[in-house]
Prior knowledge:
mainly alpha, 21 helices
Amino acid sequence: MSSVDTDSILESASKSGLFLVLRQIIVQLLNILTGFLLGRFLTPSEYAINSIITIVIAFLLAFGGTGIAVSLIRKKEEPSSKEYEALGTIQMFVVAIFAVSIFFVAPYISNTFSYGFQGSVVFRILAFSVLLVGLAIIPQVKLERNLEFNKIAIIEVVQVVVYSSVVVVLTYLKFGILSFGYAILLRYVAGLIVTYRIQPWRPRLVFSFAEVAEHLRFGLYFQSSQIINLIKDTAVPLFIGTISGAAAVGYIAWATMVMNYPALAIIIFNRIYLPLFSRIAPDKEKFHSLLNVLLTLTCSLVFFASSLIYVFRVEINLILFKGAWTEALVLFLPFLFINILLAPTMIVSQAVYALGDSKSNFVLMILWTVSTWLLVIVVLPRFGWKSWGWVNLMVNSFNLYMWWRLYDQSKFNVLKPIAIPAITTLMTVCLTFVLGEYNMGKAIIIVVLIGSFILLAVINVRNLKILSELKS
């Protein structure tokens, strides 16, 4: 890869990153507001509905998202029209099978959670919505491949504004579970309309094995990894809901929303990492420099924000949620440690994908899924739903496998760029345990947090300079 090509890619990625930051600010503010309002409107048992709907939406996106077609994003040369059409056709068949399956099993899913007729309606709305997502696959792939995340940001902001406003208003008006169904449908209708306005595309059925053969191995591993990961995530609504009740699911969902929010908020940047790493990976020196900068920046922000939430978890519950979620606070400590593992792994996994290895992520998803269900079945009946945080932490320890895979393939040590952010976070946790019960202790912890922020800011100013040098 030439220096000009690398510089051009980094310049495009920087602009895309800016738009994604703006998009992320808007979207996360809306998500925080939506979660806050639903947390006030709903009881823990009612909040469990939101968790179950979220899992179903995630399945919808796994089947209806880029999936198999993601191989087109990492291809170095521009794919032909026939490749786009042939991959789009295969993906739509996958989407259609999923949609039809959901439509027919909707009553059984609804009865499992005692949602009755309204639940059936909601799940059938989701089945229709996945078809809308499928129709947007190829335009989305084209935009991501060209790093046109400014346009993607517009689409996703429209979707979130529509969904958040509809679900909050209808929940307030006592529409119950139907609020989520109507909100999801309107979200994807609006998204499809805006997508086709921004990136016109005429879907065509094209059957050509020659055009898709090279993409299937990578794409199937990629999509299978997503699906297996979601099977892991069903442990909360299915098993925990069965043995501990809907309220336990609600407590876990709320704690996940609040404590893991710093890590979840950066997921959007994965959209940049795969095409960016794929183009720059041949230049090993710049690839390593970019990884080092991104890991330090990301972990500094995520670890510091996680520390703040953990230190002030009691105040967040009392002031914002009227103390309704006190039982869930026991989950915050293991969730903090999960953030320390999860934040760097999001970047590392995309780097491994960019090196052409989709199998390692598939193996990780298998490890996650098998260990989740084994530990849930063995541990939770004995220790109750409050042990879920530590179970989840043990599962996330398998993230270290991806760190090893990156080192094995590219000789990059993940521990070096994340060491200082991790140490400051662990120091804050220790101080919280020792001094957290005292007013003076809380003040000392705040001082440490401020000092940590300053230290991390200085480190990341240097990293931003390195990033600027990479572009030049």
